[in-house]
């Protein structure tokens, strides 16, 4: 594969959302391969770059000293030619409720391959729809990425919700020499369920309590002796200015699997519906004994493609997001993903990664 050749990514393929763009940008930056992404977010009601994507593009432009064409709101085509990776302190204010965790999803893989540690401070939304809630990133993504040898610290300085945003987080990234292959095959036995049911602003504490009680009751219906400790939190005004509510649940197993589920408060949606939505997702994962939840699937693909050795995970049905992430990873790196579905409906995804080495760390030695 000619590493300097421009790769064209079709943003309308499969999921047709921001996932293809984010993964293409991250891999382009890491491998220093120029890309052109066309038909960006073609399957979304408002196609093209939204705020979240534009901020991620511009942050990566600065991190990689890239030449960029098409970095404007609603742009449906983008050309990105990165030059390097600069580990440093970065600060971005989206002035909206753009998902902070999705901006991190684009930037974290890149800064792992910088020559020194970085801090990325972003203002936007911490708990918004169609994106990982910040608690999911902390309690589910972080422990799972440890299996690839990835270390990051995430601090929530302020929580922020749709429509105003005003959330603020700090991500500290430690570079790696090379990623290890991650194994997520052995479910073991369910051990504990924990998590958080929160509310903020004018939303009463009783809503968080109701979410927690419903979620706990439903887990206990299926596993009466299951240790289930969901914290109920009302964020203080110095931690969250606006109204917001949600629940994130996390299951831990005896073999170290960490699976998450969540629901976000919305107008006219009752607390027990939110508690029930999160607990039924989690109960589904636990009863099928899978190791990777439906949302984590697509978030692991990029690391599997870059790691040294064969990574494998056991999950439920593959999501369109995951298929999209596989399409991008295969096109950008040349790896091949294998997808096997067994009789009980579990899917095993495996991939021999390219064993990408951090050239900045090797060079400094
Ligand atoms: N509840 C959730 N918990 C954890 N991760 C989530 C959750 N909902 C979505 N995600 C993750 O967020 C990402 C969303 O990708 P998607 O392509 O849909 O985003 P987007 O393009 O930025 O938004 P849009 O849907 O507006 O195009 C995926 O990685 C998905 O797994």
UniProtKB/TrEMBL annotation:
It catalyses: a 3'-end 3'-phospho-ribonucleotide-RNA + ATP = a 3'-end 2',3'-cyclophospho-ribonucleotide-RNA + AMP + diphosphate. InterPro entries: RNA3'-term_phos_cycl_insert (IPR013791), RNA3'_phos_cyclase_dom (IPR023797), RNA3'_phos_cyclase_dom_sf (IPR037136), RNA3'_term_phos_cyc (IPR000228), RNA3'_term_phos_cyc_type_1 (IPR017770), RNA3'P_cycl/enolpyr_Trfase_a/b (IPR013792), RPTC_insert (IPR036553). ATP binds at residue 105. The active site is at 321 (tele-amp-histidine intermediate). Gene3D superfamilies: RNA 3'-terminal phosphate cyclase domain (3.65.10.20), RNA 3'-terminal phosphate cyclase, insert domain (3.30.360.20). GO terms for molecular function: ATP binding; RNA-3'-phosphate cyclase activity. Its EC number is 6.5.1.4. Belongs to the RNA 3'-terminal cyclase family. Type 1 subfamily. This is RNA 3'-terminal phosphate cyclase. It comes from Drosophila persimilis. The gene is Dper\GL18225.
């Amino acid at each position: 594969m000619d590493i300097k050749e421009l790769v064209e990514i079709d943003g309308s393929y499969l999921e047709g959302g921001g996932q293809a763009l984010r993964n293409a940008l991250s891999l382009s930056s890491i491998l220093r391969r120029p890309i052109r992404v066309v038909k960006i977010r073609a399957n979304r009601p408002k196609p093209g770059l939204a705020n979240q994507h534009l901020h991620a593009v511009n942050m990566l432009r600065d991190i990689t000293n890239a030449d960029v064409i098409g970095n404007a709101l609603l742009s449906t085509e983008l050309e990105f030619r990165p030059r390097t990776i600069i580990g440093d302190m970065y600060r971005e204010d989206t002035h909206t409720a753009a998902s902070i965790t999705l901006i991190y999803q684009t930037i974290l893989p890149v800064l792992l391959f910088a020559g020194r540690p970085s801090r990325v401070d972003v203002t936007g939304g911490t708990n918004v729809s169609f994106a990982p809630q910040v608690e999911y990133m902390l309690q589910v993504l972080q422990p799972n990425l440890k299996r690839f040898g990835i270390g990051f610290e995430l601090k929530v300085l302020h929580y922020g919700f749709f429509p105003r945003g005003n959330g603020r987080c700090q991500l500290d990234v430690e570079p790696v020499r090379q990623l290890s292959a991650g194994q997520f095959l052995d479910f073991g036995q369910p051990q504990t369920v924990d998590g958080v049911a929160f509310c903020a602003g004018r939303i009463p504490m009783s809503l968080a309590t109701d979410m927690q009680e419903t979620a706990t009751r439903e887990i206990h219906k299926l596993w009466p002796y299951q240790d289930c400790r969901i914290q109920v939190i009302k964020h203080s005004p110095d931690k969250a200015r606006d109204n917001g509510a949600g629940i994130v649940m996390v299951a831990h197993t005896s073999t170290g699997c960490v699976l998450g589920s969540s629901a976000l408060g919305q107008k006219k949606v009752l607390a027990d519906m939110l508690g029930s939505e999160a607990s039924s997702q989690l109960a589904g994962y636990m009863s099928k004994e899978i190791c990777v939840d439906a949302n984590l699937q697509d978030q692991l693909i990029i690391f599997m493609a870059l790691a040294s050795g064969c990574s494998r995970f056991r999950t439920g049905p593959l999501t369109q997001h995951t298929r999209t992430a596989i399409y991008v990873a295969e096109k950008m790196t040349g790896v091949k993903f294998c997808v096997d579905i067994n009789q009980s409906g579990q899917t095993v995804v495996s991939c021999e990664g390219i064993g990408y080495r951090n050239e900045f760390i090797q060079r400094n030695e």
